[in-house]
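Section 3.1: Structural characterization of target chains.
Under the original work plan, the team committed to producing a structural model for every single-chain target entering the pipeline before any wet-lab resources were allocated. The record below documents one such target. The sequence was received from the expression subgroup and is listed exactly as submitted; it comprises 83 residues.
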Amino acid sequence: MKPADRKIAINRTAEMAAIFMIGDGILGILQPERHVELWRSNFVAADMLVRPFGGKPGRRRMYGVLQLVAGIALASRLRVGPK
């Protein structure tokens, strides 16, 4: 893979992460209880990620704001180089 192709692949991957952060953040802000309940799981590793937000919609909303800001910041830094 050429360096230019590698860079665009990395940027696309980073943008997908930003899109996930933005979307997850918005859902966490608008529907915190529903969103947390959907992700509760008997699989311990997955449940550990959402357990701190169970019964604490304000905490999930604040984390959603953080995700939204971080996702926008990440996406805004990504640029397409010369072709």
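The chain has one domain: 3-77.
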